[in-house]
Amino acid sequence: MTRGRIARSAIVGLLAALPFATADEHAESVVLVIQAGRVHTLTGEAIDGGAVIIRDGRIEAVGRDLSIPAGARVIARPTAVVTPGLIDACCTVDPEIPQQASGWPFENWRPSFWQWMARQAAHDADDPDHVCGSACGLPHDAGPLALAAATMSELTWGEQSSEVTPHRLVIDSVNLLSNDFRRLLRGGVTTVYVSADSANVIGGRGTILKTGGPLRERTVRRADAVKATIGGDPSRRGLPNFLPPYYGPPPTFLTRRPTTRMGVEWVFRKAFYDTLRARKGLKIYGADMPPPQALPVLQQVLDGDVPLRIQARMQHDIFTALRLAAEFNLSFALEEATEAYRCLPQLKAAGVPVIFGPLYMDAKGFRGRTDEVRQPRLNTPRQLADAGIEFALTAQELRDEEGLVRQAMFAVQNGLTPEQALRAITATPAGLLGLADEVGVVSPGAAADLVVWSAEPLAATSRPLLVLINGRVVLEEAN
Amino acid sequence: MSAGHTSSASRRGALACAVLMLGTFGVAAWDVPAARGQARSSAGRAIQAAAYVNEQGQMVAGGLLLIEGESIAQIGGDREASEAGDVPVDVYPGAVLSPGLIDCHSALAAAGDLSEREHALQPHVNARDAFDRYSHQLRLALVAGVTTFALAPDDRNLVGGRIAICQTAGPDGWPRVLSDAGPLKLSLSVDVYRPEREPTSRSGALGMLREAIETARAGVPQDDPLTAFAAGALPGFIAAPSGADVLACLQLGQEYGVRLVPIHTRDARRVSELASGQIAGVVVGPLDFSAGQRATEAAALFARHGTPVAIAGGLPAAPADSLRIGAALAARSGLAPAAARRAITAAAAELLGVGDRIGVLRAGYQADVVVFSADPLDLRARVLAVYVAGRRVFVADGGPQSGDVP
Amino acid sequence: MRPVAILDATLLIGDGRTMERGGVLFSDGKITGVGENVQASFLARKIVGQGRFVTPGLIDVGGSVALRFQFGGNAATANAADGFDRYAEDEIRAAWRDGVTTVCIPARTGSGVGGVGAVIRLLPRGQVDEVVLKREVALCAGLGLSGWPGPLSRARQAEDLRRRFHAAREYREAQEDYADSLKEYEEKLAERAKQANSGQGKPGAGGVGPGRGTAEQKDEKAAGKNEKKDELKKPAEPAQDRAAEMLLRVLDGELRLWVEAHDPAEVAALLDLAEELNVALVIEGATGAHLLADRLAGLRVPVVLTAAPTPLAYGPGPERYAVAGDAAELRRAGVQVFFGSGRLTGGAPPPAESVSGDSAAAPRLALRAARAAGAGFDADTALAAMTGSAARLLGVERQIGRLEPGLQADLVVWSGHPLAPGACVERVFIAGREVYHAEGAWPEGDE
């Protein structure tokens, strides 16, 4: 009986501790030394045969002939390559929990009316394999209604009750328990800026998170930049992008202005115009007023206290963004920027940094359903580099074979140098996030966010062997 | 197991038996119609069974319970029924006495919807006003042993209103509201996000909730449930199905010092340790038979890290005995039996703020007693009788029923 | 394979009997000995079963474990075995944890005929012939589970079902007519050939040649017509209809008709149908069937109790007829009652989270039975309904369902009586292989 009890409690203890096992494994070791074949410091030349000494979660020293402190735990991977943990400056995290209205209401018990209609339509058409309404198999007469009901939530999960919601925080919609963080870690990404989605003209404030380690220590910055979107996404009335106008569910909060690019630009301008009026103590009025809670945040954006990001894909949207920024004297970073190659001189002149990506010739998913991705070019990163524009690469929602490190690899295939590409996923995004010398580099004083790769990180066969965040091993490849 | 009756209870027992003979399948007779006209006997009454569930939730031998008026006068001890004095004694050989079961989140006996639809913040509404004391659902719950339930605004509003604590029977035999000053009901469930009003999303919901708390704190203190909640004076039951929702509750608790009790929680894997000591308790369930392991073990994980756990039953959508089904499922998934028994009685009462009146068999507490034929966690056990506020409101058909048909 | 002996345990044989302190021996996937004094060979792996209970692996009569297919309303030839994903280990593991080793998967459909149900053994990654214990159990149909709920759609669906059976009969008649006329044709053909043989060299009735008058030609034509009438024509073969043939097998009593319905009115409609067509019926779901207990008993229709699906639309759903005592009441009337986990979701394909990892939905048969026992169902009968009787219903009683030498070694070791609170599954064997072993992951009770 006693033995049984011990065995039971052991199992139970194991179960309970499981989620924390990887995180807390090395919490005790105060000094950690990683010896590798090469260390990309990003502050200077790569160091061959170097070592990194980590004390209390921070990098103490990096170099070739360092003396190893007594009692240090040494991880020797003589053929491996060390880089800073990768940084995705415009990540989308799969929250894995419902985020938005139009999911099944009532705790997955009963579908909404529209979902119910969609299912009925699918059912009546006697298409048993696609009763749930997967987009590929729906009968034609189920049509837009069914598609709208079935896919709405995958496209947008920001707050939709206004076009202008800079007072809402992306951190509130991030699920720190999501398995997506694990996938990011597997790709060597240790810091992400989670950006708001593009369904609002002025959306919520992004957040900066570490992808691993104890839950309490994940958040680097709760509320960061405000995200604005210029282009088609906010003019879709909250509906899936592939629906023709006037199809889909009847008017709700999700059905709202603007419906055109002109309207998008107007809402952006009106928001900042009203903010300026409010600052002067003037009354604000008219349609498309920003909600009162938005004004203080927009005020901070105007003052430069809160950074601004603008997502624009096509050339004329980028020009619109530049024009609006000039009008209100705003500085911003450009997200996505598919057609940046067409605006190089203007971007250079305005000094706007670009968070470019993902790279594609043939966009998939919701992006593919917009009409904004017809003319991408794979050599855009190279052109940005040649033009001397500060840029970072992002994989956004892509993972694994299309994840951040692969984005950099594709960029190298299309003309970027490996050094430039590595910089675009480490030091440059760190700088854009205001975390220069904190992450994105291997230098004394920086947080010990490191990836130990099996080979040069941008080699096609390379993979992360070990990932550290704040000096803790958060991912270790099983041998 | 037949209920034996002595003294003046015999006449009532005979009546009950007569009704039962006429009655349909193995259920019940209300004592109410026959007894309503009678004056209450202040002399009290006694219940004799083989064992009872004590304050820790353990089953202990000896089961003489004395009722004085509406309250328990004495429980346990070695006294025999004959020593009970000159009071009628109901004898249930081999039976187990349990505190009346408490469903700490239900929509039982609700007349109409349990959420106002036009705005997501409804701190002023009180579920008491939706209580339909003539609902037939109440009887189904009562015969399953549920004596008390929290009638709660549903999960569709961020702040749904005040929870009312109701009873399926009362001293006069009729269902009643025990307290209309229950916790505030909040929700982070996906049901809150609605396309026709704010918020439409999780970030909107949490943002609005923070604004509401801050506004309530900045305003003039008044007799407003939201103000009391924001000041940490009133606990809030908050629908938090996922682990991420529980994390959000912990965060809100740390930020504002509000007292949140996550309910409907289905995932404790990575949050039960963090929740330890941070929250007054947690409500899991409703659990049905097909609930996965992750959901059924949530109770055990929270309990292991020292968080008091109650189990909700989900009445009336779920069957009347779903409270016991939930406890049995949790017990099979690692919750200690005593904790499982408490989860549907004492722990629920404490979280609802009525732990000083009901939920345990203790002298001075309201005499809400369910007589089970065996351990209440054993789904094979039957409800033999139910007492609310000292009055027997249900007695089951006597003999054990056999399904043996060749 | 090394023989295994479980000794000193309480054996619940599966037919309602209990053996205190007995042992079970099995090797090569089969039970070789059951009894109070079984002798385990010294080679055998011995498991001390003191305080433990051993049952045959439970049979989920009407489950949907690892089912990856939605059956349409007119797919009589589909087979549920083809929709079973034997690699869905999360779900299969959830079933083991509840002591379920075999599951009867009906080809569920909202209305109409879904296909043929199969009996599946939950052997993970097993070969198909190991996994599928019986490929054809019953022809499955649904009533009242799709479309607007209400009497109109119920009546329409019941009528559709009846029509399909009548159509199958007509198909058979057409086939029989065809067979008859084919026979006739062949006989005539043979006769002709005989005639032709005997009358060889005989000149034709009229000479055929050019230069005849029109009138003659007309005559000729008329004569030819007459002759053509006499001429043999091969009868046209009616189109093959595999679905109708499947339905005919039900009408012939080869297969049962297994219908899911969750409303007493639907159950009544089904009983009418079964009487009219004289088919062997099994009713699954059967919410509210206790209201028709006597009729069910009279027609000897077994009932598989599964939970009512959550309704698609608003309004009172079938759950209003659900009572804990339905099993007991049915049994008391003499109806054979079985337990199934049913659809694990209300008609919709399960959300990803409920089939993967530890969120996978579980059958919980033992607790379902315990609950029925609480409402007056005899506990031994309940155990038999999940083991021996269930195997008999499904026609696999010669393979599984009891602890008996010669049967398959599918068995479960429980820490306590399967219906008792806190009892958990410690080991599961399927075909003699230990597929699940919980090292008692549960804390001790406090008493």
Description:
The complex is a heterotrimer of chains A (479), B (406) and C (447). Chain A has 3 domains: 1-85 and 441-479, Urease, subunit C, domain 1; 87-94 and 161-439, Metal-dependent hydrolases (TIM Barrel), CATH 3.20.20; 105-155, no CATH class. Helices cover 30% and strands 19% of the residues of chain A. Chain A has 14 helices and 18 strands. Chain A has helices at 2-24, 105-108, 113-124, 143-155, 180-186, 261-279, 294-303, 315-328, 344-350, 365-368, 380-386, 404-413, 418-424, 427-432, and strands at 31-39, 47-48, 51-55, 58-63, 73-84, 86-91, 189-194, 202-205, 207-210, 219-221, 226-229, 308-312, 332-336, 354-356, 391-393, 450-453, 464-469, 472-476. In chain A, the strands form 3 sheets. In chain A, strands 1, 2, 3, 4, 5, 16, 17 and 18 form an 8-stranded mixed beta sheet that branches. In chain A, a hairpin with a 2-residue loop joins strand 3 and strand 4 (58-63). The longest helix of chain B is centred in the middle third of the chain and has 17 residues, at 202-218. In chain B, strand 3 and strand 4 (59-68) form a beta hairpin. Chain B contains 12 helices and 20 strands. By secondary structure, chain B is α/β, with parallel strands linked by helices. With 447 residues, chain C is of the alpha/beta class. Chain C has 2 domains: 1-57 and 401-447, Urease, subunit C, domain 1 (Roll); 58-149 and 251-398, Metal-dependent hydrolases (TIM Barrel, Alpha-Beta Barrel), CATH 3.20.20. In chain C, strands 1, 2, 3, 4, 5, 14, 15 and 16 form an 8-stranded mixed beta sheet that branches. In chain C, strands 6-7-8-9-10-11-12-13 form an 8-stranded mixed beta sheet, with helices on both faces. In chain C, strand 15 and strand 16 form a beta hairpin. In chain C, helix 3 (151-198) crosses helix 5, helix 3 runs parallel beside helix 6 (264-277) and helix 10 (379-386) packs across helix 11 (388-394). Chains in contact: A-B, A-C, B-C. The interface between B and C is large, with 45 and 52 residues.
